Amino acid sequence: MLDNRITFSFGENWKEYLNTVDVKEIEGAKLDIEKWLGKDQVKGKSVVDIGSGSGIHSLSFYLLEAKRIYSFDFDKHSVDATKSMWNKAKCPKNWNISQGSILNFEEIGLPSKFDIVYSWGVLHHTGDMWQALKNSAKLVKPGGILWISIYGKGPEYEKTLALKYKYNSASLIGKKIMIYKAILLVMAKRVLKFKNPFLWNQKVYRGMNIYHDIVDWLGGLPYEVASDDEILVFFRKLGFELERIDIQGEGACNNFVFKLAECNENKK
Description:
Helix content: 40-55%
Strand order of the largest sheet: 3-2-1-4-5-7-6
CATH topology of the largest domain: Rossmann fold
Oligomer: single chain
């Protein structure tokens, strides 16, 4: 019988990761936003960052001159991490940070709807992914953008879920052993590609290094998945049109940018 305890904090992992962040990472996050949304498409817009994590992307929206930014996360440590980014930006008044869940977003006190609703790799960790997706859609203004990232569905789901439960129920030493095994696997793959195995802890896409990405993957519960077709059908029914898509497959996040029709008040 699986142990259903969740002993992992995304926020603690993010706070540790922030010790490695430099100007290059922040600049990379800004460029990624511009790549996905277009240059100057953030300036003057209202943005909500659902599950702000490290806060690096909220900071990037601020540096790209968003008119106002609201960041929130269920994990207190993530809120603290985001506040450290806010402090780095010298505490701007147009950037608000709070603790709360998208499943109960009405309690957060968000001001109506937003031009850009952003949630990267978060909604599948809420424990009720489809409700979280629906609630996120409710925050988009007509004509606004919804940018989400969701783990792809595949045949390894049950095996992966069991691995995450095993990690969460393990002792501190047990967790370290699982992390080291994953590191050794990364090193072995580098050897097969004729790369230096001791340089395994590289920066990865969108900021995290390999080590913190491994910890995030092993510990990340709750954990749900969806196929790209399921996501597309779901949002079309809510009046959204697909703008951009990037399919990574099982074990990674599929990324979507949707636009809500101008005439759609999204009351579903």
